[in-house]
Amino acid sequence: MPEPASTLAAEPRQPKATEQLRAANLARVLELVRHRGPIARAALTEETGLNRSTIGAVLAQLSGEGWVSALDGTAEGPGRPSPVVHVTTDRVILAISPEIDSLECAVVGIGGDIRARRVIDAEPSLSPQGYLNAAHRVLDDLLADASELTPIGVGIAVPGLVDSDGVVRNAPHLGWREVSLASAAESVFGLPARAANDAACGALAERSWGAASSASDFVFVNGGSSGIGASMFSGGSRILGANGFAGEWGHAVINARGPAHEQTLEQLVSKRRMERLLGRHFVDRFETGELARPEVRAEVDAQLDVLALGLRSLVNVCNPERIVLGGYLSALELARPGWLAGAIRDSALHPVGAGVDVRTAQLGTNAITIGAAELIAERLPVLEGGHA
Amino acid sequence: MPEPASTLAAEPRQPKATEQLRAANLARVLELVRHRGPIARAALTEETGLNRSTIGAVLAQLSGEGWVSALDGTAEGPGRPSPVVHVTTDRVILAISPEIDSLECAVVGIGGDIRARRVIDAEPSLSPQGYLNAAHRVLDDLLADASELTPIGVGIAVPGLVDSDGVVRNAPHLGWREVSLASAAESVFGLPARAANDAACGALAERSWGAASSASDFVFVNGGSSGIGASMFSGGSRILGANGFAGEWGHAVINARGPAHEQTLEQLVSKRRMERLLGRHFVDRFETGELARPEVRAEVDAQLDVLALGLRSLVNVCNPERIVLGGYLSALELARPGWLAGAIRDSALHPVGAGVDVRTAQLGTNAITIGAAELIAERLPVLEGGHA
DNA sequence: GCGAGTATGTTGCTAACAGCAACTTATTAC
DNA sequence: GTAATAAGTTGCTGTTAGCAACATACTCGC
């Protein structure tokens, strides 16, 4: 006799098809509310193409679970005014950004607004667990003032290769290999945690609130203290690759027959080389006068030349509509504004390069922090189909 | 007075949400039937995770519209045997592949099987319209024998940049610019037509029936007579880029400070250089003995070295699980089997290169033809939501 | 050769979701 | 103060996929 069906009835339950439909609509609406700031309800129906009643149902669920709430309507024109919807401000995400000599901690709203931040020094050779413990102390402190805030998750931006399970497989500058950072953070904070590459985080932030908004096919290229990392978006979503490692563009060979230390892109376009020339620690821009020094100008131009060659290849391969330059690369672009765009248009294969728009990151050094928080915000529990 | 709602009722009609759901399921099932050849109905339910009754409804529609039909069940094990479903054989796609000196025409089944093919010479400077007219004659002839076959569309593989509307924006070897090839073909044949880059077509075919099947993140790199083209897949779908041009990897600069004719990948890894050395037209493999000639061996190894450097960069950027080499590159790989895979694993950033699998294309010279047909087959009218 | 076992397709039914149309509400314009 | 306009709400409908019971068709073992 087969086992009675009744005992199975209470089990897994998977009428998933319709749930996915609703989840997709929840995600679309929530994304609009988060990324476009406060937005009129009527605008939501227009943007999504969904019916007014559907928007009503979706918003009822989102506001019932406390993710969004409504202000009084701004009128502007005849007819009944549409209420303006915005994300709730009482839930926050903890963002952590470990670097070789520092640790940045921040409290970030679901809408990408940084509420509080603190950067502390980190002694070299601090262990991953040490970083997490330090971050825990700092964030507890930052949250102590504001008891009305509820942290809902932890996002970590790591300068290195992080797989889709939040395991740091290889972070050369930190000296980490095979570190289960996300699960360690879940233990320390008692909250869901995710980790990702720092450039990928920066790209997420620039897409949502910065220079890449409204672009569906773009490349974010970041010049950080640990080299050059990229993150590509195609059709509105990030190109992950088989393990989530896609984007390690700094190690692309661009000068194959040069000496061993002058072959890859990040060896030639190097903040460290520039710092040696300037004789100072480079933060985010050239100081007045520095660009007038001939040897600095020459190095800047040389690095721009190489960067243009590299970007030309990247454009040929990825066909982005926009390139967003972050960190050190942003400073290089600003040293000769617009030059890169022209060089790419002229050298990339016609008509791939024709429409490419080159911009500097809008969020500056905040991009990576905000993007780390976005790791959690883009996967809020509402969107998970409710089986939790 | 507002216009009465009743007049609007018969208009566009867009209850699209549920239609998209059904269309997605239709697409999944049809893709399984097309790509996995004849497949048991039970296997379809298991692969898709859909309910038996849903599969029943989907198959009823597909077979009602004449896209699939069922053989008698192959038993294999206890229980009621499951009918085997396969695509119908009476509908075919016309595939066209214009090259600088030749024109390939083929009749291809929906399941990717080549029914008939013919390659004719093309005089240089033949116009796009000339190519299409010639193809029309050849294909009419090929179809004359088989009156039971119904052509349903025309797919064209072009060595050049083709946008998503089927406009050839730039095909240097053919000398074409801004040619609305797909719409011209629709006029000539009276059938829906699509056009795409040849490497993109090859990748489609290798994914469906060749060396890239079962891989969701792979790169297909083709060495054709018009240089090196690539096509990247991420998460199971092709990376298109903003205009569908993504993949022009042959023009990547890899030797920045070399002479102008030795900078890009396809200048250094060049079939033409090899042909000059061999003193013959290179078709698809090295002849016995050729690789024993020292100067040939040296050139092969030199080109393999460069190719390894290039692939290393591509792996770092795209993080594929597999690389499929087609055309001339396939011959290079076979000249030193397995060497490229080792070189990439050793040189790519750990652990990006660790799991990369390097293979040669399975479909050989047929890949591009089959892929051209796949342009039509992947968008059969059943999938379009029925509003036509 | 015939029944037990088993896997499969089929049939009515249910739940969920989005879309629609009519109704209600809230503001602007005159 | 009334008409016009636009937006949220409500009840209903159509479609879809999932479920459970049933019917079917084969294999295996005696």
Global Rg of chain A: 23 Å
H/E order of the elements of chain A? HHEHHEEEEEHEEEEHEHEEEHHHEHHEH
Give the strand order, joined by hyphens, for the main sheet of chain A. 6-5-4-7-11
Largest sheet of chain A: 5 strands, mixed
Quote the average pLDDT of chain A: 92
Strand content of chain A: 15-25%
Contiguous low-pLDDT stretches of chain A (5 residues minimum) are 1-13
Task: Tell me the distance between the termini of chain A.
Answer: 33 Å
Query: Which percent bin holds the helix content of chain A?
Result: 25-40%
- Total number of strands of chain A: 16
Number of continuous helical runs of chain A: 13
Shape of chain A: globular
Largest interface: A-B, 48 and 48 residues
Please give the oligomerization state of what you see: homodimer
Structural class of chain A: alpha/beta
In short:
The structure is a homodimer of 388-residue chains. By secondary structure, chain A is of the alpha/beta class.
Write up what this structure looks like.
2 copies of one chain form a homodimer. With 388 residues, the first copy, chain A, is an alpha/beta fold. Chain A has 13 helices and 16 strands. In chain A, the strands form 4 sheets. In chain A, strands 6-5-4-7-11 form a 5-stranded mixed beta sheet, with helices on both faces. The first copy, chain A, has a 5-stranded mixed beta sheet with strand order 14-13-12-15-16. In chain A, strands 1-3-2 form a 3-stranded antiparallel beta sheet. In chain A, strand 12 and strand 13 (227-234) form a beta hairpin. Chain A is globular, with a radius of gyration of 23 Å. The interface between A and B is large, with 48 and 48 residues. The structure holds a DNA duplex (30 and 30 nucleotides).
